[in-house]
Design goal:
The protein contains 31 helices and 14 strands. With 1350 residues, the chain is of the alpha+beta class.
Length: 1350
């Protein structure tokens, strides 16, 4: 699911409104609204108390003012906090208005989680450094993050341009957005791959006010800085930059670069660009929709990956359309700003509507795709979860079965503990699967819960049985009864509080706790005890009474303790122990009572005023003596209870042993009876395989043997149920025996379990043997039920076969009409549904059927599959016939609309009749109505033509859905022909629209048109007079004839020139008229007329040049022929020099002579060709043709020269390298000498400006400028020479070691030359700077003189 993060980029000094704070957080996709996704904010522990926030989209159904993306507490209403009017497919990153009626908040960013994480990484990287002093510290570096999707570009420029100072010129250029720093955007300058980086970034006041503001540096937060401005705006300020950072303010500007669409351009170019974009997108959308339909409407399986791919394709097209709509909108705004014509604005509006139409088509198809994608995802989830169940269920069932068997075989404590662990492991796995099932698809979840809940119940049942067999734990004494123990006279009943489990021996603390729980003395008895104490008696007497009572209690307690010491011996009888226990309990109560009475008496004494405190203390001193007596009795009472438990346990063990000895033979007899019952069932029912054959026979032959076998099945079932009852009875007796055995002492317990174990194993084996026979009747019923179901399915298949046969017969007699095809399709549809259900039912039944029924089911399945194949064949035939019918109808349906559109051609011809003979302009009375009629026709016909184009396009899309083959090809060709016809009408209509607008414009410039037309007419006369110049007879015609033609041409030029001059004045007047400047269309038409006039003027100029040069051209041609002849001799000489002398290699001197010869011929040939190409471009046609022939001959000479160079081979190239290496240093010396002279000219300045006067500095500067100009000329010539030699040598392929060394030397010399050029550049900059200073000094002196004179 998609996740977005709404965050704030505000710094510590930026303030966000409350509505912006309310929407911050992580948002996760949750459903959709109006065709786009809805996102809900994830709960966060740090955001407790904040409301629920939903991010949703609202379309245009309620108006433009309510459309866009919203943050609210629910979709479509309630409380809202922010809005963005964007119509993008996903929530936009910027532009959120918080609150909705407020301005956009630049610090609120909504970005996908992955992109936000990258941006956060970038911000943290950029903010890693601090700033000492007044500039940033190093360590920030360049942010290593990708650009945002929507980047902005800044343009840094200076009005001085190339004349700006060096430290300003290096900063000029485009800066592209590259992330954030301190809550604001950073920008990196576009430069060469290895160029120095320049960053524009913001630094807040965390390091002091002097370090805050916008900076330009080599890295974000780095040491090296170039400019600074003390402003804190959201974007880099336009003006106020200090270069360098501690220098004065400069006049540079930093402005935001606009979109390409915002630039000024001709209306035709703007329309062309928009049309190309719209047409391309329409084609892409049509293809995407076609792809989607072909997949969704196909008969085969539809896969989730394919649907997802189509969804992504459509989403990409939607995004492209959204972007294109923004581009078209910007084009529209730019066109309005340029005051474009109404037709252009209308065209842009129509193109935007076409984009809306394509967007609607794509969104509609997107809805279908999303619905299918959801279906595929659900089906995929069901299939995936079903596979998980299929994998886990058999393992879990096997494990539960192992548990059940292990429980039956657990006959020792060790095995019971292992089984307990096995049950825990099994239950854990089942519970884990049940927990996982909560996230399954609905159907899979139902199945999983049903199956695994049943397994859990079986685990619980096994656990309960194991607990029963483990007994109640009386073999240990881990509990002590808290209540007093009562001993029965006959000891046949357990002691009170004994639940059958053995208890631990009680300790003294437990006895104390037991006695403390006894009820306190009644208030009446306490009052009686207190009233019996006469406080008026002397103190000695009072204390004596209390002492006597305490001594009495102590004496009785001592007597009871002595008795217990004698009685509580290991061999004491049970009755003696009982009497001793009763005596001790009675004395314990007596002591407790005495303690309570003493406590009340002390309290009563304290409450009487006439009793001395010493008396109270003396009475209170008896309490410890009573406490000691109670402690001794409690200790002896514990011993008495232990003895009682020991006696009871011994008695119970003797009783249990006697019962076990009696019960074990009875349990063994019960097991023997159960085994006999099972054997009886097995003997009566026979072998299982034979029994199954009986069932198959009964199912196959039905009534013939069915009743007899059914009775046998009933008998077997009853016998199996009786045997199961016997097993259950025997198991119950064994369980009782096991429980009794667990109560025995350890030695006797082991002996009892040793006897019980084999008996129990026999019982388990009997159960296993009986289990298959318990399901005989159930299996028979299932098979019988399956037989009836199979017969029902077979009859349904037969019915489908009959209906298909009838449909096939009906198809054979059909005529291929719409009604016949529809009738067959209606017949097939219910058969297809019924057959699909039958095949699905057969497939599900195949899993649980065996034997004869399986063979029958296979036969029915084969019939069903054959019927399905026949059904597919009928559907294919119906589809082919329908395709033929559709193909025949598609062209017919479109033909009508195209024919109606073509009727407009006659109307177009009718409205264009006034201009049929080609007049450029008509009288106002004629042109006005004609133009109005044409405009009306364009307005009325445009919708009709567009409708026809749409119909044909839709039919073409439908034709692509036809099966591949001749029909589809023929139908497509017919529709393409119709498309061409309607496009011709549309083109004609568009041309009429353009011509009408142009004619309307031309009505406002009839004088210009007449003037230009007159000039064109006059120039035709001139062309006719100059016709002899175009003849290819320059070598034959005489100079006298050429002069005569030239004289005539010059005379003919005069009137034409005057007409052109008058026409240009007329055009210029129209251009300068303020009323005409506001109309782009008027300017366009005027430009076309001016172009025509310039053609006329160019013809006049060419004719004048031909008339002036024609007589000399004959001599010039002769000279060129002579020069070419001499070149031919040079080439021949070079060819001879290049001829090899056998296998012998030429010497370096010979090779250099040859190279010089070839090089000289090439230089002269290049010079001749350069001059000849200029002469060939001559208005004198005869000269142009003659020079063209000579240039062809020169090409042949060049080919011969190239062959000679190839013949000379590597020796020629190596020789040239040696020659170049000798020549280039001489040329460099010239450049260095020129540079030395320039440096001599600036000698006075090296002493300092303060040394020379203003007049001297002006003279020296003039000298420097002259020297620099001379040096520039020399350096350019030398640099051109060195570059050409280096370039030529670098192209050589056959260089040896020395030649390569020469080439390396050339490279070094080229670098030296570049150094001289750079040095001259710095020299010129210094001279210009000195000149500016000198000019300021001159101005200063003048000002001083004026002040003095004043």
């Amino acid at each position: 699911k998609g996740t977005f993060i709404v965050s704030s980029t505000a710094g510590q000094f930026d303030v966000l409104p409350a509505s912006a704070h309310a929407i911050l957080g992580d948002y996760v996709e949750e459903g959709s609204n109006h065709g786009k996704r809805v996102y809900r904010r994830k709960p966060n522990a740090g955001q407790k108390g904040l409301p629920e926030v939903v991010l949703f989209f609202w379309d245009l159904r309620d108006g433009k003012d309510l459309a866009g993306w919203w943050f609210g507490d629910k979709v479509g209403g309630g409380q809202v906090w922010a809005r963005n009017p964007s119509m993008s497919s996903t929530p936009p990153e910027k532009g959120w208005k918080c609150p909705v009626d407020g301005p956009p908040q630049e610090h609120v960013v909504c970005a996908p989680k992955e992109a936000k994480a990258k941006a956060d990484d970038f911000v943290s990287a950029a903010e890693s450094g601090g700033r000492p002093n007044k500039r940033p510290q190093s360590g920030g570096g360049a942010p290593a993050a990708k650009r945002p999707l929507q980047v902005q570009t800044l343009v840094f420029s200076s009005p001085l341009g190339e004349e700006a100072p060096e430290d300003t010129r290096i900063l000029a250029g485009d800066y592209v957005q590259q992330g954030m720093n301190h809550g604001k955007k950073t920008f990196l300058k576009k430069s060469e791959p290895n160029g120095d980086p320049f960053w524009i970034y913001y630094w807040d006041s965390r390091d002091g006010k002097d370090a805050s503001g916008w900076w330009i540096g080599s890295s974000v937060g780095g040491d090296e800085i170039f400019a600074w401005v003390d402003q804190h705006s959201a974007m880099p300020p336009i003006k106020g930059w200090r270069i360098p950072a501690d220098g004065p303010r400069s006049d540079v500007s930093v402005i935001l670069k606009g979109h390409e669409e915002d630039a000024e351009m001709p209306e035709e170019e703007r329309l062309k660009k928009v049309k190309e974009v719209v047409t391309l997108l329409e084609s892409k959308v049509d293809k995407a929709v076609e792809t989607s339909k072909s997949m969704l409407d196909s008969e085969g399986d539809i896969f989730e990956d394919g649907v997802r791919a189509v969804s992504q394709l459509l989403q990409a097209r939607v995004d492209e359309i959204e972007e294109a709509k923004g581009s078209v909108s910007r084009h529209g705004k730019a066109a309005k700003k340029q005051k474009a014509s109404g037709e252009t604005e209308a065209e842009l509006g129509l193109l935007e509507e076409r984009l809306d139409s394509s967007l609607g088509k794509a969104m509609k198809e997107m809805g279908r795709v999303q619905e299918q994608l959801g279906k595929c995802e659900r089906e995929g989830a069901e299939e995936r979860d079903a596979k998980i169940i299929e994998e886990k269920l058999p393992t879990a069932m096997e494990l539960v079965t192992q548990v059940e068997v292990a429980v039956e075989e657990a006959n020792t404590e060790e095995k019971a503990m292992k089984v307990r662990d096995l049950i825990g492991s099994c239950r854990q796995k089942v519970e884990k699967t049940l927990d996982a099932a909560n996230g399954f698809a609905p159907e899979a979840q139902k199945l999983a819960l049903a199956e695994f809940t049943s397994l859990r119940e079986r685990c619980n049942a096994a656990d309960s049985r194991l607990s029963l067999w483990e007994g109640s734990g009386l073999n240990t004494f881990d509990e002590v009864p808290a209540d007093p123990i009562e001993i029965d006279e006959d000891e046949d009943k357990p002691v009170e509080g004994d639940s059958g489990d053995a208890t631990a021996e009680p300790d003294e603390a437990e006895v104390e706790a037991t006695q403390e729980n006894e009820p306190a003395l009644d208030e009446d008895k306490t009052d009686e005890a207190v009233s019996a104490l006469d406080t008026s008696l002397p103190v000695a007497q009072l204390l004596q009474l209390i002492t006597d009572k305490v001594v009495q209690v102590e004496t009785e307690a001592k007597t009871a303790l002595d008795t217990a010491t004698v009685v509580l011996k290991d061999d004491s009888a049970g009755n003696d122990v009982k009497l001793c226990l009763e005596l001790l309990e009675e004395q314990y109560k007596a002591v407790r009572k005495a303690q309570n009475v003493l406590a009340w008496q002390v309290a009563a004494l304290e409450g009487k005023e006439d009793v001395a405190p010493a008396t109270v203390e003396a009475a209170r001193s008896f309490a410890p003596r009573l406490e000691v007596a109670r402690a001794h009795i409690s200790q002896e009472l514990v011993l008495a209870k232990r003895q009682v438990l020991k006696v009871q346990r011994k008695s119970r063990e003797e009783r249990d042993i006697e019962a076990a000895e009696i019960a074990l033979p009875m349990a063994m007899e019960a097991v023997k009876q159960a085994e006999d019952a099972v054997e009886s069932v097995v003997l009566e029912a026979g072998d299982l395989d034979w029994r199954r054959k009986q069932m198959e026979t009964a199912i196959h032959f039905g009534d013939e043997y069915g009743d007899e076998i059914m009775k046998t099945m009933e008998d077997t079932q009853l016998a199996a149920e009786g045997a199961q009852d016997a097993i259950l009875g025997a198991r119950s007796r064994l369980d009782t025996q096991i429980k009794a055995a667990r109560l025995l002492p350890e030695a006797q317990q082991k002996a009892a379990f040793a006897e019980i174990a084999p008996v129990r194993k026999r019982l388990i084996e009997a159960q296993k043997k009986l289990n298959p026979y318990k399901k005989v009747r159930m299996e028979f019923d299932e098979q019988l039920k399956a037989k009836h179901e199979l017969e029902s399915l077979s009859s349904r298949v037969a019915a489908a076969e009959m209906e298909l046969e009838a449909a096939n017969i009906s198809f054979e007699g059909s005529t291929g009409s719409e009604d016949d095809i529809k009738s067959v399709e209606m017949t097939i549809q219910p058969v297809q549904t019924a057959l699909a259900k039958v095949l699905k039912a057969l497939q599900s039944k195949a899993k649980g059927i065996t034997g004869v029924l399986q063979e029958r089911l296979s036969g029915v399945q084969e019939r069903g599959l054959a019927a399905a194949q026949k059904l597919q064949e009928l559907k294919q035939r119906a589809r082919v016939d329908r395709s033929k019918l559709i193909g025949e109808q598609l062209a017919k349906q479109a033909e009508k609309d195209v024919a109606e559109a073509e009727e407009l051609m006659l109307k177009i011809e009718e409205v264009e009749k006034p201009w049929k003979d080609g007049p450029e302009f008509l009288p106002q009375a004629t042109a006005g109505p004609a133009i109005d009629a044409a405009a009306t026709l364009v307005k009325e016909a445009s919708p009709q033509v567009e409708s026809a184009k749409t119909v044909v396009l839709e039919k073409l899309v439908e034709a692509r859905q036809l099966p591949e083959g001749l029909l589809r090809l023929r139908t497509t060709e017919e529709l393409q022909g119709l498309q061409a016809r309607v496009e011709a009408v549309a083109l004609k209509l568009m041309q009429l629209k353009i011509d009408t607008f142009a004619r309307r414009t031309k009505m406002q410039m009839t004088d210009v048109i007449q003037a230009v037309a007159k000039a064109e007419t006059e120039v035709q006369k001139l062309i006719k007079v100059a016709e002899p110049f175009s003849r290819d007879d320059l070598e034959k015609v005489t100079a006298k004839d050429l002069k005569g033609v030239g004289t005539k041409v010059m005379k003919a030029i005069e009137p034409v020139a005057k007409v052109c001059e008058a026409a240009r004045k007329t055009v210029v007047q129209k251009q300068q008229d303020p009323k005409n400047r506001s109309s782009p269309s008027f300017s366009t038409q005027l430009k076309k007329l001016l172009d025509r006039l310039e053609i006329v003027e160019a013809t006049v100029a060419g004719s004048r040049q031909a008339a002036q040069e024609a007589a000399n051209n004959k001599n010039t041609l002769a000279e060129q022929k002579k020069g070419l002849k001499s070149l031919e001799a040079l080439v021949t000489e070079a060819e001879t020099s290049a001829l090899p002398l056998g296998d012998e290699q030429p010497s370096d001197q010979t090779a250099e002579v040859t190279a010089e010869s070839l090089r000289g011929a090439q230089v002269k040939l290049d010079a001749w060709r350069k001059q000849a190409e200029v002469l060939a471009n001559n208005p004198h046609g005869g000269m142009e043709l003659a020079m063209g022939r000579l240039l062809e001959e020169a090409k042949q000479l060049q080919a011969r020269l190239n062959d000679a160079k190839s013949l000379a081979g590597a020796s020629n190239e190596q020789a040239l390298c040696r020659i170049f290496a000798r020549e280039v240093p001489h040329e460099l010396a010239k450049a260095e000498e020129a540079m030395r002279k320039a440096e001599e000219a600036e000698g006075p300045f090296l002493k300092g400006l303060e040394v020379i006067s203003v007049e001297q500095s002006s003279t020296v500067i003039a000298s420097c400028e002259a020297a620099a100009a001379t040096a520039r000329s020399v350096l350019q010539e030398v640099q051109s020479y060195v570059q050409s030699r280096h370039k030529e040598a670098s192209a050589f392929a056959g260089l040896d070691g020395p030649a390569k060394a020469h080439l390396h030397t050339l490279s070094q010399q080229l670098s030296r030359m570049q150094g001289l050029v750079d040095k001259l550049g710095q020299y010129e900059n210094d001279t210009a700077s000195r000149k500016r200073i000198a000019d300021r000094n001159v101005d200063g002196e003048r000002a001083s003189k004026i002040v003095k004179q004043g």
